[in-house]
Amino acid sequence: MAVDMELEAVLRAPEIPQAKYPPKVITLANSKKMVVREAERRDVPILLKAVKPTMEIDRDFYDIVGARLYAELLGWYKHRVRNEYCLIGQIDGYVVGIVNGRMVNKDIGMSYHTLALDRGLRVGSHLFASKMEHHIEYLGQKEVWITAESPIGFRRWMIEYGLLEQEGIQHELGGANSYKLTREIYFETKPRLVAGTRPVPKRLLEQAEKEILVADEETITEKICGVKGR
User: Fold this and answer.
1) What tens digit of pLDDT does each residue of 33-45 get?
2) In this model, does residue 212 exceed pLDDT 80?
3) Statement: residue 27 has pLDDT above 50
4) 15 to each of 18, 22, 74, 104, how far by Cα in Å?
5) Staple partner for 43: which of 39, 87, 100, 128, CB 3.0–4.6 Å?
6) What does the pLDDT look like over 164-184, one tens digit per residue?
């Protein structure tokens, strides 16, 4: 056991201190209130239950995004990813979206994935914007590296934000070319793309923090695909 603990100390990814993301609330198109807050490492097992059904959805690249996000969250939980964080969106306690990323160093952020479990309300767009807000305003970074795995992602991130393509720079996720969000681009687009108010009303925040609820697999699939069942 002593040897195992020594090896674990070597294998665990070192981490640098990170500023916490202050919770906020966003009013969606259907008037529902979505609380956006930072998840803790101990929340990962329940978040994996929310992500798992998407790994079987062969639509808009949900399967690969879900599989990769599942692995990234598990890596964070097992201390195998450096400086990772996760933000979640909750409506009435239910998780409706998840985003994650990490700090490469104090100046550069690495955006990983954006997964909306409830489509048609711009949940993914709001959470991606919150992720950029976290990197630039709360982690105080100079730029965020971003890539896309789907046409929807490319339109929502690269085109909508006017991101800068990085020649000769490989994103950690591989695949398509890497783009970056700079502080200048962020503050130019913030009035148009970053929503939400603080502080979160006490009742809403207490409900979100009390328990992370996960819809059943059929409901998740229906909200993503727009039809009952797969």
Assistant:
1) 999 999 999 999 9
2) yes
3) yes
4) 9, 20, 16, 10
5) 39
6) 999 999 999 998 899 999 999
Domains: count for the chain: 1
Q: Decide if 196 contacts 135 (C-beta within 8 A).
A: no
In the 8-state DSSP scheme, what is residue 164?
E
CATH number at residue 134: 3.40.630.30
Mean pLDDT of 89-94: 98
pTM: 0.95
pLDDT at 80 (0 to 100): 95
Question: Strand pairing partners for 99?
Answer: 87, 114
In the chain, the amino acid numbered 144 is: V
Token pair for 181 = 């969000």
Residue 77 belongs to some domain of the structure = yes
Identify whether 4 is part of a domain. no
Q: Is the pLDDT of residue 229 over 50?
A: no
Per-residue tokens: 169: 């720079």
55, 63, 87, 176, 230 from 220: Cα distances, Å: 12, 13, 19, 28, 10
Instruction: For residue 142, give its domain range.
Output: 24-225
- Region 69-87 average pLDDT: 97
The pLDDT, as a whole number, for residue 3 is: 60
Chain centre distance of CA 72: 11
In the block, tokens 């130019």 appear at 188
Alpha helix ranges (H) inside the chain:
2-11, 44-51, 62-77, 123-133, 151-153, 160-161, 183-193, 202-210, 217-225
Strand 108-116 to 143-146 pairing:
parallel
Which among 22, 33, 26, 21 is positioned nearest to 91, based on CA atoms? Answer: 33
